Amino acid sequence: MASQWKRRVGTVCRKVRAASFDACPNGQAHLSDRAGCAATPACTMASSYHPAVCIMNTPSSPPDLPDSVERLAASVVGIATRRHGSSGVLWRNGVVVGNASALWRASSVSLVLPDGEQVQGELRGIDGGTDLACVTFASGAMPVAERAAAAAPRVGDFVFAVGRKPSGLTQASFGHVGAAAGEWRTWRGGRVDRLIQLDGGLYPGFEGAPVADASGQVLGIASPSFSRHHGVVLPVATVDRVLEQLLAHGRVQQGYLGIAAQPVRATLDGSAVDGLLVSSLASDGPAARAGLQVGDVIVKVGGEPVASLHELRELLQVGSQVRVLVSRGGQGHELSLEVVERPRSHCH
């Protein structure tokens, strides 16, 4: 999965027996015989005849791993654009999920199916905040990937990714979870429900590839966009949430008030409170129209306390009308604001 993974687990055999690989007619690689390598850790890397297959045999890799790879590969497509090739996975009937960074500004999208057939897809939406994109096409009898929606991966868990080259060849890569934690936000502002960081970066072509646990259940979608040295897995819950908006709107709608703000400690009716100090206002924004002023401290939105920009973003639902409690000169004032969709060049 990662160039770093090579150094740790990808000890390359000098001699690879041809019997270790059986290429099927549709271009998938059947990973069948792992016994021919004396390297430690035992790993068989294909020669130039099979450049896309690496089999890792460690105590943490299950004996039925080749079957899990083949099963997941049946739901994986190659995504070819004018820029380069990446991977995607059939998330719903007729809906492929991949990386936004691989499909950004793509005028046309060509999908390479598991049987080698090449079809045209329609780019339905992208979200740079989470690096997710969706493409629709006529998927026919192609199976939807099995997902582990409630999984909570731990550091050290074995995982693998399956991609597809533009030629149709299946490729797989293996490693472990390098870091795991709760909800976080990307540097682009996207909300991700769980941190699943791999123990290395991603090989070329694995952008958008599904990452699965040892049983072959998909944990999420691989992305190289949020760390220079490690791949990140966008979990199932995040993909499901973002996909709904991409299919409905072509983008993820984000609420906008037209303010710039920063956390402060303020006074409200004689009591100390945490809030957000309004440092500037967009003249044509919802906040300015509602009467919010520079110097006001936002204390509550919709009855919920807001002590950080993260908390504020979570409360801004596009199209809603919210009551905002502010401290102005230490005195409480309540305003009603309409939340609109954030313009691309603005923040909050």
Task: State the main characteristics.
single chain, 348 residues, mainly beta, Thrombin, subunit H, Pdz3 Domain, six-stranded antiparallel β-barrel, six-stranded antiparallel beta sheet, 26 strands, 39% strand, elongated, disordered N terminus
Provide an overview of this structure.
Mean pLDDT is 83; it is low at 3-59. The protein has helices at 3-9, 65-73, 100-103, 236-249, 286-290, 309-315; strands at 21-23, 29-31, 43-45, 54-56, 76-80, 85-92, 95-98, 109-112, 118-127, 132-136, 158-164, 170-181, 184-185, 191-192, 195-198, 210-213, 218-223, 232-235, 255-256, 259-268, 271-281, 297-301, 304-305, 321-328, 331-338, 340-341. The protein is 13% helix and 39% strand. It is elongated. Strands 5-6-7-10-9-8 form a six-stranded antiparallel beta barrel. A six-stranded antiparallel β-sheet has the order 15-12-11-16-17-18. Among the domains are: 62-74 and 143-249, Trypsin-like serine proteases (Thrombin, subunit H), CATH 2.40.10.10; 255-341, Pdz3 Domain, CATH 2.30.42.10. The chain is mainly β.
